[in-house]
Amino acid sequence: MAVNRGRALLAAVVAGLGLVAVAASHAAPDTVSLLKVRLGGEGTETRVVIDLDKSASVKVVSDGEADRRVVVMMPGVDAPDGLQGAGRGVVKAWMVDEVQGQARLQMDLAADAKVKRRFLLPPADGIAHYRYVIDLAAVGASGGSVGAPAPAATQSASLTKASGAGPTPAVRTQFLPAKKQPLPLKKVIVIDAGHGGKDVGASGAQGFEKEINLAAALALKARLEKSGRYQVVMTRNSDIYVPLETRVRIAQRANADLFISLHSDSGPTASLKGASVYTLSDKASRRSTQFVSKDDWFMKANLSGDQGVRDILFDLTQRATRNRSAVFAQTLLSNIEGEAPLLRRSHRDAGLVVLLAPDVPAVLLEMGFVNNPEDEARLRDPAARARLMNAVADAIDDHFGAGLKVATR
Ligand SMILES: [Zn+2]
């Protein structure tokens, strides 16, 4: 998360404080959706922000003092499947799951720390949803948590609340995990099968792009899940229309470590063939030098695309994220080189929208041209498609396995 966003968040938090007491009395009885979990801060203080579409009551059932784990229950709150992420500051890792119809946020702590304050913020300052804020602060090594064996014994005793806004802490020891294993932390890969439903994409002699994209996405999903290393989130699992904004939102909510969009081209003539990779970049001239010539490496977001998506792309996309995207794109090209011909040509005018959420490295893979007979046959052959997706998965393995050289900003 960029410093700027953190500051903006903090400013919004401070500005919203005065309204807390008002909002807290408006708890809605119907289902609340957990939108996202965000972490901010550095070093010994970490701010956890739970974005909610409505006001909700949040109970801290384990405040971190006993066992280096903070557990928060949210009755009546729905959470997306498998929400999780790497930590920040005193939080080592976190995950959201559902227990007895309630959303549960668990955080493994990287240091002895505990909940310092927590409060609910209503929509304010251009932020349209509620935020539940939990501040965690490191405690001294002599804080008494070492060797404390009974997780249930020390709940919530030292919680402080801001403005009386937070709900009363409740001790619900039955929700505590039976054993203390580290939270499972798999890399989250969002696979976006391009087009779908009424949006058929490019047309080939044998059918539409949308079918190939979905088949490839499902093959990639299967391969990634088989490894056990990834949690895969799909923007679509079937032949349905999913608006671009929804795809962006899915990537944001999932806290994706990587977003990969699968498409198939249609060229102006049937002679064009080969795969290509797109990312968003500061400059269209930034390119991978290893496998393709200068003009082949085309990094460009389509400015004529949907206004909302465009704004999201350019307001929220961060340089570090773009750099990580470019690093992965190069890995991807090197892995698929043996499985598919790579496109060699100047970039064209036809627009592509690379969906990109803040902090989510994203690439768009054009697997080939559906209006080129060779490419279409290759893309429609399940075995060939599986080989290509294996190569994509190998690239993902390489990217996350090899110590990941992330470009510095
Ligand atoms: Zn497409």
Please explain how this structure is put together.
By secondary structure, the chain is an alpha/beta fold. The protein has two domains: 164 residues, Sandwich (Immunoglobulin-like), CATH 2.60.40.3500; 215 residues, Zn-dependent exopeptidases (Aminopeptidase, 3-Layer(aba) Sandwich), CATH 3.40.630. It has eight helices and 15 strands. The strands form three sheets. It has a five-stranded mixed beta sheet. Strand 1 and strand 2 form a beta hairpin. It is elongated, with a radius of gyration of 23 Å. It starts with a helix and ends in an 8-residue tail after the last helix. The N terminus and C terminus are likely disordered. Bound molecules: zinc ion (ZN). Zinc ion binds next to loops.
Topology:
Elements: H1 3-16, H2 20-24, E1 32-40, E2 45-52, E3 59-63, E4 69-75, E5 77-78, E6 84-88, E7 91-99, E8 102-109, E9 113-121, E10 130-138, E11 187-193, H3 209-227, E12 230-234, H4 244-253, E13 258-265, E14 276-278, H5 307-316, H6 319-336, E15 362-369, H7 373-380, H8 382-401
Parallel strand pairs: 1-5, 11-12, 11-13, 13-15
Antiparallel strand pairs: 1-2, 2-10, 3-4, 4-8, 6-7, 7-8, 9-10, 14-15
Helix pairs in contact: 3-8, 6-8
